[in-house]
Specification:
By secondary structure, the protein is mainly alpha-helical. It contains 16 helices and two strands.
């Protein structure tokens, strides 16, 4: 990437680190605040789902107007709202107030994600976008490697409320820095916002509809499992709480390497091939660790394989979907995509909470069924990747001819 592109991508990655950390840290800490607030561990999916459901709604609403503003200003407002919602989480007194705080955080976190990805897609051309997306998505790995273990240790030493306040403070600082250092981002407004394409034109495009279906299946397949990993490994697999930070750090390190490697592999071999490899590995890992209820390898190794497969799949999928819209409809497309991502994530989290039950010894009952559902959804992805990738290539080949038509 060029120097100007690298600077923008680095700033967006820093903002995404805070955004993702806010979301990621809540699920591993679930058993901690569940005990403190009297929440059954089988219902932790509702806590994660409340964030994603709010993000889905705000993403849908945001898609109506986000393309009318400088992306830098819009990102600053969204991130400040996220920091406020995160701080409110540290003041929760029960399941209801914690869910309300997560709804507030999700209402701003959803648009923040779509704006961040739109900034990268605006600034970096398609031939270098895989590497750029890999860098931004490395924020997920960095949050896992650095943020989540630090948050878990802070919760262990200072109580479960402390990480909420710490992330809120960090978010305020990082957001201020990004707003000051990012250049104005108004290129998409060159023709005036009144000329921007609407919903009907966007959704009439068959490629957009297939891409959104792929989005929903990808996210739901992950989030029937993800909110329940921490209680599952602690109670079902007898993994000690004191080493939970090490578990997430190990998985995050794998993910950090994978996202960088996957971005380069996608640029070279395409999303279908790399995404299919990740899908097959993910299905095998979920079966061995959740359906059998006793992975054939140590818990740390199992979690590392899970993160490796997720990294391959997600970089492939995100890079491909970034190529679907044209520049002037990108933020609207991304915002709707973010809404669908979060709605599907919420559906998966809520569904798992309906299926699972907490046994008297705190173990989760029903995980094999949840895992089989995840595998069934996951195995739909290669066919969708193939369809979307072929249609994207055809659309990109046709775009240069459009002005002459």
């Amino acid at each position: 990437m060029r120097r100007s592109e690298t600077a923008i991508v680095a700033l967006v990655a820093a903002v995404q680190f805070v955004n993702i950390l806010d979301f990621l840290m809540v699920m591993p800490m679930g058993p901690d605040f569940a005990v403190a607030l009297g929440i059954p561990s089988s219902k932790l999916g509702y806590i994660g789902g409340s964030y994603t459901a709010a993000a889905a709604v705000s993403g849908l609403v945001g898609s109506l107007f986000l393309d009318r503003f400088d992306r830098r200003s819009a990102l600053g407002v969204a991130m400040l709202g996220l920091a406020l919602g995160t701080a409110a989480g540290g003041l929760a007194t029960g399941m209801g107030s914690l869910m309300a705080a997560r709804v507030l955080a999700g209402a701003f976190g959803g648009p923040a994600t779509s704006l961040a990805l739109s900034i990268v897609a605006d600034a970096v051309p398609p031939q270098r976008r895989g590497k750029a997306m890999g860098t931004v998505m490395a924020a997920f790995a960095a949050a896992s490697v650095l943020g989540v273990p630090a948050g878990l240790e802070l919760a262990r030493r200072g109580g479960w409320r402390a990480p909420f306040f710490a992330v809120a403070a960090l978010g305020t600082v990082v957001t201020a820095g990004a707003v000051v250092l990012l250049p104005p981002l108004r290129g998409h407004l060159a023709g005036g916002w009144r000329e921007l394409p609407g919903y009907s034109k966007l959704l009439r495009n068959p490629l957009v509809r297939v891409s959104y279906l792929m989005t929903a299946i990808t996210m739901m397949s992950g989030f029937v499992l993800i909110p329940n990993i921490s209680p599952y490994v602690q109670y079902n697999l007898a993994y000690p709480r004191a080493r939970l930070g090490l578990l997430y750090m190990s998985g995050g390190l794998v993910s950090l390497v994978t996202t960088q490697l996957a971005g380069r592999l996608v640029d070279r071999y395409g999303s279908f091939r790399i995404g299919t490899a990740g899908t097959v590995l993910l299905a095998a890992t979920v079966y061995s660790g959740f359906v059998r209820e006793a992975p054939p390898v140590p818990v740390v190794a199992f979690f590392m394989l899970f993160m490796l497969a997720m990294g391959l799949r997600n970089v492939s999928y995100n890079t491909l979907t970034s190529r679907v819209p044209g520049p002037r409809e990108r933020a609207r497309f991304m915002s709707l995509q973010s809404s669908i991502q979060h709605a599907a994530s919420a559906a998966g989290a809520f569904l798992s909470s309906r299926i699972l039950a907490e046994l008297p010894d705190h173990r989760l009952s029903g995980m094999p069924l949840v895992a089989l559902l995840s595998i069934a959804l996951t195995l739909c992805l290669p066919a969708l990747l193939s369809v979307v990738e072929s249609r994207v290539r055809a659309a990109e080949a046709a775009r240069p001819l459009a002005p002459a038509a």
